[in-house]
Design brief:
The protein is mainly alpha-helical. Helices cover 81% and strands 0% of the residues.
């Protein structure tokens, strides 16, 4: 399997793992939900986990890959405020935790570009 064939499956795996984590350990995600969002943080945690699982399935399937990958790129942009909140909230934590929270911020750009690349690769195969 070539690198370009593995890329969508790896992205789908990342999304599936993250989505599953939202259900397996929701409390850690509840704390990243911006307070300005209406409703319970747990509802947002479960909703974002469900979205990640749906995106994973869509990216994994060639027929829906392009649209799902574009939606994934948008999702990665949409959850960026949660990463900012985490970095702000964790600014006084021990150095390894603070570094992890800050490290998530620049990671969003490669994730968005990866998802866009998967979408572009799917265009060529349709």
């Amino acid at each position: 399997m070539s690198r370009s064939e593995r890329s969508p499956l790896l992205l789908a795996g990342l999304l599936a793992a993250a989505g599953t984590a939202h259900f397996a350990a929701p409390r850690q995600f509840d704390h990243t939900v911006p307070r300005s969002l209406p409703g319970s943080p747990r509802t947002w945690t479960y909703a974002s986990g469900a979205v990640e699982l749906a995106l994973a399935a869509g990216v994994a399937l060639p027929r829906t890959r392009r649209v799902a990958a574009l939606a994934t790129a948008a999702f990665f942009v949409g959850v960026f405020p949660a990463n900012i909140k985490m970095a702000v909230d964790w600014r006084h934590r021990p150095a390894p935790q603070k570094a992890a929270a800050l490290g998530r911020l620049p990671l969003q750009l490669p994730l968005v570009l990866w998802a866009r690349g998967v979408a572009k690769g799917a265009e060529g195969r349709s």
